[in-house]
Design a protein that fits this description.
rod-shaped; single chain; alpha+beta; about 45% helix
């Protein structure tokens, strides 16, 4: 390696420059992958807490909205979609005991470190559970 750097033909200099550029690009990609993994782990935790709250309360009412707002205050701004296979009362979004419910948490972010280029990436997590409340 030292022999290539000390070479007066400039071939070694070009090899070193290309090597540095490749190393920086690999570093940028690895940092992006690490940030996406960290984001997904946080979103897993958020989705798990939201589905736990909705299954405990047996629906998606104001208590679910309060829990969602608390999660946004604690973590970051994210989009939430939810639903159930069948509702006991669609007006109040109540789900009968044993029916499946699902919550999807998604966040749009960008690949960082590419200069003026912005590549959008959407990370989403879906969790499901069974309602634990019996409605009369």
């Amino acid at each position: 390696m030292l022999k290539n750097i000390l070479n007066k033909k400039a071939e070694g200099y070009i090899d070193v420059c290309v090597g540095v550029v490749v190393f920086v690009m690999v570093l940028v990609i690895s940092i992006n992958i690490f940030s996406f993994i960290t984001l997904k782990v946080e979103m897993d935790q958020i989705a798990e807490e939201l589905i736990e709250a909705s299954t405990y309360y047996g629906g998606f009412d104001t208590r679910f909205d309060i829990c969602c707002e608390d999660m946004q205050d604690d973590y970051f701004d994210f989009d939430v979609s939810y639903g159930a296979d069948s509702y006991f009362n669609a007006t109040y979004e109540r789900v009968q005991l044993g029916e499946r419910m699902w919550v999807t948490v998604s966040k749009q972010t960008y690949v960082k470190g590419l200069g003026i280029f912005k590549i959008p990436v959407t990370v989403s997590v879906t969790r499901s559970g069974l309602s634990e409340k019996y409605w009369k």
